[in-house]
Design a protein that fits this description.
With about 200 residues, the chain is an alpha+beta fold. The protein has helices at about 25, 40-45, 100-105, 110-125, 180-195; strands at about 5, 10-15, 20, 50-60, 70, 80, 90-95, 130-135, 145-150, 165.
Length: about 200
């Protein structure tokens, strides 16, 4: 038996096994033949996701001393961490979710820069002169800056193994919304394929 994947761009792929890595909200946007089990489709449609935003900021010097630096703030950008660990770089990543992420998206570049400065001010004072770049999608469609993360942590979506059609993603684990959960899920799927 062979799978056939037809793409919108007209390309067709054939395979004996398929691993679906799509985020949960996109799975129902595909026409599956034969259809996926109703219980799985229902679980996917009930998954709750929220807007997540990450902004990478480069500095002219490392203003933090701890390589494992992270901080939680009550500002509009509530979580900051050192994303240049073990790398010759001075970069912090700021993240927000839900309503705070939506508020950041409504700000222009300068408003976002002020939010970054305000978040770091209690720990480092005014860092405006240390910022060398703020990296995010800067095109006309600000929605491209975001991703979606699950926050329904306790509800695991289950799917019985389909014949040579495997799914992986955070939504199949108890740690929805975490990249590590997606990676672990993918490793489990690859392990299944290699042992059959």
């Amino acid at each position: 038996k062979e799978f056939i994947v037809n793409c919108l761009n007209g390309k067709t792929y054939k395979a004996s096994n398929v691993i679906c890595t799509l985020p949960a909200p996109l799975i129902n946007s595909i026409t599956w033949e034969p259809r996926l089990p109703e219980a799985f489709i229902h679980s996917i449609s009930q998954s709750e996701y929220q807007t997540c935003l990450k902004i990478s900021v480069s500095f002219n010097e490392r203003i933090w001393s701890d390589n494992d630096f992270e901080m939680i703030s009550d500002e509009i950008l509530p979580y900051v961490y050192n994303s240049s660990q073990n790398v010759e770089s001075n970069c912090l990543t700021f993240s927000a979710a839900g309503e705070k992420a939506k508020k950041i998206l409504q700000l222009n570049h300068w408003g976002r820069k002020e939010a970054i400065i305000s978040t770091l001010k209690p720990a480092f004072g005014n860092v405006a002169n240390h910022i060398t770049s703020i990296n995010y999608y800067a095109g006309p469609d600000a929605s491209k800056m975001i991703s979606y993360g699950a926050f329904d942590v306790g509800n695991i979506i289950e799917i019985d193994k389909q014949e040579r059609l495997l799914f992986c993603g955070d939504y199949l684990t108890s740690y929805k919304g975490f990249m590590e959960a997606s990676v672990r899920s993918a490793k489990n799927v690859v392990r299944q394929l290699l042992t059959t």
